[in-house]
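Today's session is about reading a structure prediction critically. Students often jump straight to the picture, but the first step is always the sequence itself: look for stretches that repeat, for charged clusters, for runs of hydrophobic residues. Only then move on to the predicted structure, which in these notes is written as discrete structure tokens rather than atom positions. Here is the chain we will use throughout the hour.
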Amino acid sequence: MNRGLAQFVKVWGLAIRPKTLFAAVTPVLLGTVLAYSHRHGAMPSAAAAFLGAIFIQIGTNLANDYWDAKKGADNENRLGPTRVTSSGLLSPSSVFIGMVIAFLIAALAGLFLISQAGWPVLVIGIVSIICGVLYTAGPFPLAYIGLGDLFAFVFFGPVAVAGTYFVQAREMSLEAVILGFVPGSYSVVLIALNNFRDRESDVVVNKKTLAVRFGDTFARAEIAVFCFIPAVIPFVLGFRGFSIPVAVACSSVAFIGGMAICRSVYKIRDKRAVNALFPRTGLVSVLVTILLSLFLLR
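Below is the predicted structure for this chain, in token form.
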């Protein structure tokens, strides 16, 4: 790989934030595995759902990078990873075009899913893309008025899992909605960690996240609550056919992972240390998802 191409890949890798893509992949995996466990699995629809979810996540990341830079939320005081727009690594127009391309690819995947499962997919797709843009854009961006956490939970949780199940099974499932609480909770943990780390700089630009509105104590408590919700879900699923040993195994992994994240959050004094918790959260989310998937397919 020549130097120019290597630099291109490196910069766009920073832009799309590949370490966040597990938030798009895990709910689709759970929805697909559940569909196959009910003998409704359809690989073409599952592949299209994966493609759509990943590019909605990428589009949302690029939209966040672009509009946070325009609003001044990303500046020299930023504690998180480098943002490509504010740092000048990519021009604002390049990031904006990348965002449009990502959402167009997601829309193309959605067209196939609409042909397979009908108008409900159209509604889900349109709302997901609009919310992905409005997360940081518009006069009332979700992330700036304290609704980013709710968006993450709903669209990367129950909506993503139940939607993936629906495009394959052509019917809704309460189990899919319940399973959605697992990836949805870990998505909230990511948002809450981000807002906890950036609370001081967000105050300056009037970004009224929940951490800004209610303080660090609330932010730590929010992270703790959503770290442990996934440990409860296997027992809720026990009423839907999960055996107790299976529930205990899945819950134990979620609980131990949640404890590790929470202990770090409550010990942190230098908020730069929060950056190390993002990949750990991703790892816990993936481990819990794989364990749930294996037991669903047993």
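Discussion point for the tutorial: The chain has one domain: 3-296.
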